[in-house]
Queue: 3 jobs
Job 1
Amino acid sequence: MKLGCCYYPEHWPEDVWAEDARRMADMGLSLVRIGEFAWSRIEPEPGRYDWGWLDRAINTLASAGLKIILGTPTATPPKWLVDTMPDMVALDEQGRPRGFGSRRHYCFSHAGYRAECRRIVTALAQRYGHHPAIVMWQTDNEYGCHDTVLSFSDAAANGFREWLAARYSTVEALNTAWGNVFWSMEYRAFTEVDPPHLTVTEANPGHWLDYRRFASDQVASFNREQVEILRKLSPDKDITHNFMGFFTEFDHHEVGRDIDLATWDSYPLGFLEQFWFSSEEKRAYLRQGHPDIAAFHHDLYRGCSNGRWGVMEQQPGPVNWARFNPAPLPGMVALWTLEACAHGAEFTSYFRWRQAPFAQEQMHAGLLRPDSTEAEAVPEVRTAAAVLAEIGPQQPVQAAAALVFSYEAAWAIGIQPQGQSFRYLELVFECYSALRARGLDIDIVAPDADLEGYRMVVVPSLPIIRKGFVERLAGLTCPVMLGPRSGSKSASFSIPAGLAPGDLKRLIPITVTRVESLRDGVAEPAQGWAVTRWREDVAGDLVPELSDDAGRGVLYRNGNVRYLAVWPDRALLRLLFERMADEAGLPLVDLPEGIRVRRTASHAFTFNYAAEPVFAAHLGETLPPASWHIAPL
Ligand code: GAL
């Protein structure tokens, strides 16, 4: 695995570039990502390109032996461009423009902006498409960051109408699919349909689901336009996009199909602070991040683009954007780096080289401080580089367990949660974490992935069942788990004719007759575990495999297929996965709190995420806080 950093030559006097490049190489870095926000310097006036500085920056970095990842600058359109077409910005759900003055101020549906993007990408690719030091392109930067997937602009509304016409052909078909007779929401023409915002109460969920699908398709086609240009003008270079953490607003599997490798931006401490973790977890892992946060995304993004992936931005110190921004425990930057390698990353690149003394991110650490002295992470980068050199290249292997992840499932559940604590991403993460805490390696895969060869398959929840999914599951002999709400919606967001779990009844003959959600803090007990948040009444001839103390069925089983009819607490997940692993003949270990393992084809990695020393029984050794143990298999 290579190491790199994110660098902004346009932020620094030209006379420090060569020294920066020399220091990068000396630190063990061989990759540098540049350019993704530099539009105003590349094209200071409409049509006047200033390539001089970028040519010199690229050549300076290349002279130090660094290879370059060049970003297309379309996340930051310059002021003059926005002023030529003020309607290119997105409108928020309240209809307010998301204007100039930060970044991502554009609407994915605006044809004029798309043309400008094609123009700037073409110009860049013509200039640098064959430069020997450039090894990779990054399209844009973090699609969707700052809540920018959905826009309610005129361009988006018109795009949506066209999208609907293509999907439904007739407006009658749309009315039927959404059930618009309910509340007299029927339309007479596609031109009458608006985006689903500014309604008095919630808009039709079918309307919302299609709006989300449309918005996701717009992101994919925006990206594809850039990819097509880059493929033509720079055919030998890899293309990536840097995705985010815990982010489901567009279908990353779809975008992943168009690029050569998926990359993601890893900020474990910020994510722990910003997401659903309990205050105990936030305290225990304050300076380390929850032990499954980084790994979850490594395994998710490996499944997004044919197995090739990397970390484009790695947190090297405190960030600036979470509610609270602690510093990593000494050792964590090296640990995160080596963990990416254990999961098969091609590279890890730190964000950023030098902390900026100006503008929005001046409180965000870099590898260097603003005065160019080395910040705390640097010795750890050197350590990681040395360990990587010692262990050599690592090959990922197919994991024992597959976890099926669906962006559409996240949208469907988010649109109509029917209980505010039913969060799809959290349910998937809980399943992932429960499997990993028992020492299993996991591949997180798309619903249309090939599931052959896995020893167990976990589908945490999949409301909408696509063509071919049931057949693929039916072909498996390994234990399969289907989670709550699976098969509960049709493609147009209605209850399936024969009730849930719809087409999944071909795998397990049950019918969900009623669902209920439980407020936070309610736990309906059983022997050693409890039902929380959600439960379903299930009818059919199957005797439940597990029931709670009140005698209500919780888990149903038909041969190798199980249906879990509740939101499980951790003890229930543990019990369930123990049974599945036992049937699969998969050995489980009981890893102590904070310890995680991961195997490549050649090595077994163990990481201690705890803030104190922990005895790892599987090694017979005590690992210090924020440390790792790597052994050949
Ligand atoms: C990412 C983004 C970077 C920088 C970083 C700060 O989301 O891609 O440009 O803003 O966060 O942590």
Job 2
Amino acid sequence: MTRRVPLRPGKRHGAAAGSGTPGEPSRALTSRVESARGRRSSSTRWLSRQLNDPYVQAAQQQGYRSRAAFKLLEIDDRLRLLRPGLRVVDLGAAPGGWTQVAVQRVAAQQRGAGRAGGCVVAVDFRAMAAVPGAIHLEADITAEDTPARIADALGGGAHLVLSDMAPDMMGEATTDHLRSMALGEAALDLAMAILAPGGGFVAKLLQGRDLPPFVTRLRAHFSAVRQMKPPASRVDSSEVYVVATGLRRPQ
Ligand code: SAM
């Protein structure tokens, strides 16, 4: 089975924090994946897609731990959310692609060196290898003590809360949507507890009936709310990123 994927990530974003070497993604030959006896066709399709995905190849070449890193790079190249010196929380951080981007862009590794370094707190209930420059918390974001643990680690109000969290997919669109929205609601509750006035919130959500009321809730608290589908987000995925900026002070 051969699947052709157009080369998309042509832009060089720089070296990933903590690992890898910068480099332009190179055009790779399309890999053919033969269906082996015993391998289900869905896993054959997945393997073929991975092998031929230019974002997977670019992530390997540039030292990012996930192709998802390019989604945050693309969102941030457009909106300039990550600036040196900011305090950023990355919810659902494993394996660490977004954390690498955040560390790089807020210059978190320079903290304590007398420069305007920021701070990145990476939270996941899955264990992940440390990203140099980030503070790691192995925690469920819905646990009662997680907001306080994050606030302690940050040492001040957060400027930006990112959530690339995803539920385990059941393959049933409505169920997956509702589970994704539940994570989005939990992320927003947490963000409201730790964000400084003027702060921002970015969350991945699966489209469906509960997305519009969620956006309405965001509009009540933030001065600007956008929905984005970065080029690195697969066209056949219903995922969308909501980006809310300018948290209003409580009245
Ligand atoms: N942004 C990451 C990157 O660039 O490498 C990829 C994130 S991955 C798509 C989603 C993550 O969300 C998983 O690692 C999962 O363990 C995490 N997650 C899901 N529910 C969570 C929860 N309640 N608390 C903490 N992490 C959660």
Job 3
Amino acid sequence: MLRSCFNRYLTAMFCCVTLFGTSVSHAEQVVVYSARIEQLIKPMFDAFTKETGIAVKFVTDKEGALLARLKAEGKNTSADMLITSDAGNLWEAAREGLLRPIESKTLEANIPAYLRDPQNQWFGLSVRARTIIYNTQKVKPADLSTYEALADPKWKERLCLRTSKKVYNQSLVAMMIAELGEAKTEQIVKGWVANLATDPLSDETKAMEFVAAGKCDVTLANTYYYGRLMEKNPSLPLAIFWPNQASNGVHVNISGAGVTRHAHNVPAAIKLLEFLSSEKAQNLFADVNMEYPANPKVKTAPAVAAWGSFKQNPINVTTAGELQAEAVKLMDRAGYR
Ligand code: FE
């Protein structure tokens, strides 16, 4: 529907422009379904159109709604590309057959292997780090070490967590299952639950506000939420601790994209994906949401780099999807709601 309307619009434009004798034979478009909101994506699309002449039409919605829509539309979808956060969501889209493998030397060169699907159905475009956030008046960095150590009884009634219903902690637990095994991970998650100061909270901004207010001392959050909160309230007694630096590294996830199974314009969609991975667009993609560029040749924004450098866990982010169902079951068994 979207495509046919737009085609009609293009045709109308073509007729008019032809009347004036100008060729618009390069008028092409890519249609994107995006779980990233307009203000995070439009600047890059505008830059892409400026460079290539290819128009980008986009629809934004929650990832669940976009996946359902892609599934329902099947072959008739207008979408050439899906953009969403979390490898778990992209893995699910690939598992549902909504994406297609693509070959691109540019993407393979720009995006490290651990941040993309081994079958090349999706590619990470920005990195999100999941860290420990602590109250600087109540906790010393020396008290902290790993995600696992937050299960220690010394944190009893001092931990706040976001609900297990959100994919971020599901992905973290999935990675822990891969690295520590199921039994050990279950023990740790039970320990977290035993240490909770409050019921799990709806979002991580709220969890950090609880930490700042002294209702608990530590929480887990993606760093961009910390960045947004501190921008609004620079005096909050909160700081980032980079966990697992002596072992496997900080749990990272991605925002990323793939070309849809039923894309109408595969070459243009690949071109857009390559552009988004390029040095030119990577800062636009990452900085606007205070994330880290996925392309290692690109420098992190100064405001984000100021939080310090850290070792990332190099386990392939696909694991978050592969073990997501097991993670959800494990969290349920452990009483993490
Ligand atoms: Fe988020």
